[in-house]
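Quick illustration, no need to memorize.
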Amino acid sequence: MKHDIITGDCLDVLPTLPARSVNLVCSSPPYPGQMGNWQTVAEWLDWLGHVARRLRPVLAPSAVVALNVAFKRTADGWQDTRLWAGVASALEAAELRCLDVYIWHKTNGAQNGPSTYADAPGYEPVFVYTNAERPGDLLGDNKVAVTGTMELDGSVGEVGGIAQKAVAARRAGAKYFLVPRSLENEAKRNAGSMKVIPVSNLAEALDALASIGGNARELTLQTTPKAK
């Protein structure tokens, strides 16, 4: 399998990509005041909206866009609430629809110290959006909880606290819980009536979503084999 690595400004590269060819976008763009970016919050959000509109034509059906935005603070206090609200508005104006928002706990903390652009231990919201007609299409309108690590080759690995996660997912009203195959039994002991679906890799996870009525088989992601 051949892989091409393309570098450049996204606004220059996006028009060169085939239509409906991009399945997954992961981005952490420089925020206002970081890495030489001196845009105001309003200017940055306008830029993000422009990028999102240019991105939309190259997204494959049921593509996923994940964008993380750091907690920032200045001497005047926390300021990123404008970014969080604005990110959602910019993506939705480009006809992308919210799947979920996660909080990424960066255990390495703030790279430049707690008094600069981020605050230790480093929490960042991750906005996960899709171009599916309705976000529920990916999940068959089911409430689905998922846990596990993800390797470049698509394999799903173990995580800790599976019992607590099963209880939390059940209490949140999840109907299905996708877990690493090796943790199936422990998850089931704490799942109550919630159905636990064990998976070993990304392909099995997509098949599981398809089996409960989602259109996840349209989302075909390329993976990288593990080095031998």
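Residues 135-215 form a domain with the Ribosomal Protein S5; domain 2 fold (CATH 3.30.230.10).
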